[in-house]
Amino acid sequence: MRKLAILAMLLISCAALAQNTETKDSGFSISALDKSADPCSDFYQYACGGWMKANPLPADQSIWGRFEELDERNQFILRDILQEASTKSSPAGSNDQKIGDYYGSCMDEKAIEEKGASPLKPYLDSIAAIKSKKDLPNFVADWHGRGANLFFQFTSEPDFKNATQIIAATDQAGLGLPDRDYYLKDDAKSKELRDAYLKHVQKTFQLIGDSPDKALAKAERVMTIETELAKASLDRVSRRDPKKLYHKMSVAELAKLSPQFDWNRYITARKTPSFQSVNVYWPDFVKGANTVIGSSSLDDLKAYMTWHIVQLASPFLPKAFVDEDFNFYGKTLSGTEQIRPRWKRCVQYTDTDLGEALGVAYVDRTFGKEGKDRTLAMVHAIEKALRDDIGQVSWMTDETKKRAYEKLDAISNKIGYPEKWRDYSKLQITRGDALGNSFRTNNFEANRKLAKIGKPLDKSEWEMTPPTVNAYYNPQQNNINFPAGILQPPFFDKSLDDAVNYGAIGAVIGHELTHGFDDEGRQFDAQGNLRDWWTEKDNAAFNERASCVADQYSGYTVIDEVKLNGKLTLGENVADNGGVRLAYMALLDTLGGKQVAPVDGFTPEQRLFLGWGQIWCQNVRPEQSRVLAQIDPHSPSQYRINGVVSNFPEFQKAFNCKAGQPMVRENACRVW
Length: 672
What we know:
This protein starts with 7 loop residues before the first strand and ends in an 18-residue tail after the last helix. By secondary structure, it is α+β, with helices and mostly antiparallel strands. It folds into two domains: 291 residues, Collagenase (Catalytic Domain), CATH 3.40.390; 188 residues, Neutral endopeptidase , domain2 (Neutral endopeptidase, domain 2).
C-alpha cells in the first residue's frame, strides 16, 4: 500500500478476510511447528509447517496467514458494533448514526437490486454531456473528489524539503491493472492477463447497456489509453528513491508540461486553498498524460472515464456488477475461488470510509490504556537497542552516527489510536443510499486532505484506522505508528514470556524503527526533510551492505520462473533483518544475563526466533504470489523468515546449525 506520502509499511495490505466462523485468539503455539523439518535446513517450514497444514486456504481468500487470522477476529468485533449501530436509533449526525446507516445501506442487498443500475444514470449522463476536451478539467476534478482513478492523482503532502509545511502534489495514476508492467511485459502470462482484463472491461460496458460489439470497441479504447499512461509511468523500483519523486514547481510550470489540460481550471474546480508550489512526482508522466489527452478522441476519453467510474461504483451496485468485478480482480488476478460474505465486505468498506468513527467503539472494546502502556515499554527497549546498535556498527563514522542519534531521539511513537479523533460532522450519510454514501465519504476525505495545503503539518493524524492489523513508519513525520488492531495475539500476548513477545511484536517494532535507516528512510533527516546527512564514505559503506541484501533476496524464486525483485523489496528486507536483531538485543538486555529455564523445551533465544517465524505463517494462492512478486515491496513469508535467520550467527548458535546448511549463509548480509 502506498499513498503519496511515503510510508514504510509492515505489509502491503491486509488481504481480504476469510472464514465464516469466528476464530479464537491464537498466539504462539507448539502445534504450529513441523518438528519433522530441520530448522537449519528450512526454518520457515519448521516454525510454520503445522500451522500451514492445519489452516488451508479458505475459498474466499487469496492469502490466509496470521495477519488475516487476527483481522478475521477483528471483523467479528466490528460487525457487532455495526449491527448494533445499524439497528438502534441514534442522534442525527452522530458517529453512531453515520456508521450504522453506512453499514445498513451497504447490507441492504434487496434495495440495491431493486434500484438496478439507475444510481449510475446521472453520472453516465454527465459524461455524455461533455461537449469538448475543454470540459475535462472540471469533470476530472469532480470525479477525483469522489475517488475515481482518472489520469492522475492530486492531493496534499508534506514538502519533502520542508516537512513542517503541507503543499499540493500530483502523481501518476489512471490504470486498471495493478502496475505499469502488466501493460508492457511480453511474456505469456502478462498477455493472458491483458486479454482477461479486456474481456472484463467489455463485460462491464455490457452491464450498463452496450452491445457486445460496442462494449468491445470501448474496452479496446480503454486499453489503449491505459497502455500509454503505463508507458509514461515510473517503475516501482525507481519510485523507491525519494529524490526521483520530488520536483517542486509553480502551477505555471506544471501547466507548461500539459497544455492539452487546463490545470488552472482543474485547481479552481477542486476548490483548494491558494498555493504557489506543487510537487510533481514524475514530470514525464504529466507529459505522457498530456499526449494521451491530446491524441485521443473525445469519445475515447469518455469510454475511459466511464469505465473507471463504473469500476469505482461496482461494489455498491447490483450483484451482476459485484460478481463481474470479483471474477476478474478476485478469481483471475488473485486466484480466489469465491467472494467474501457481504457482511465482511461491508465491514471493510465502513472501516475504510469511516474508520475513526468506527474506531472509537473498537478501541473501547479491545485496547485501552493498559495496552498502550505495555507496548510503549517495549518500544523504549527496542529504541535503546537501536541506539546501542548504531554505536556498535564499525562501518559508520562518528560524524554520521551523531546525526543518526539525533534522528533516533526525534522519532515519536503513536500507539493504538489517535489522541484526537477525526471530526465527521460535515459528512452526510443517508440510509438507503449505499453508492452515494461511498462517493460522499470519498469526497469528504479528498476535501479534508486538500484543505491542508498551505498549513503546518499535523503529526497527530493517522494514516491507518485503529482496527487495522498493520503498522508503519512515516519518514516525513519521523514517527512509528501501531494501530490497536495489531497489538493482540499472535503479535503481543501478555500471557506469554518475553522471548516470544520480543520475537513477534518486538521485531515488528524494530522493523518500523529500522525503516528510518533503510535505503529510503535514511534519506530523510530527524525533522523529516529530504536531506543527505551522510558522509560520502558512509554512503558507500551503506550501499555496499544494502547491495548484499538486494542480491541475496533476488536469488529467491517466488513461483515457477518468477524471481523475487531484491531491489523492490530492499527496504523491507533491511527492516526485517534489523528488526529481529534489535529484538534480540533488547531481549538479552531485558534478561540481564539471568539464566532462564527452557519453555516447551526451547531456550529464550530459540523462542525469540520462533516468535518471529510464527507471525509470518501463511498460505498463498499461486496467482496471488505472481501479483505480489510484481508489486509488493515485501518478500514472501518464507523468505522473510529464512532470509533473515540465515544471516544470523545468533540463530545458528541457538539451533546448533553447521556450516554448509541452508540456514547458514557463507556470506551473511548485515546492514543494521
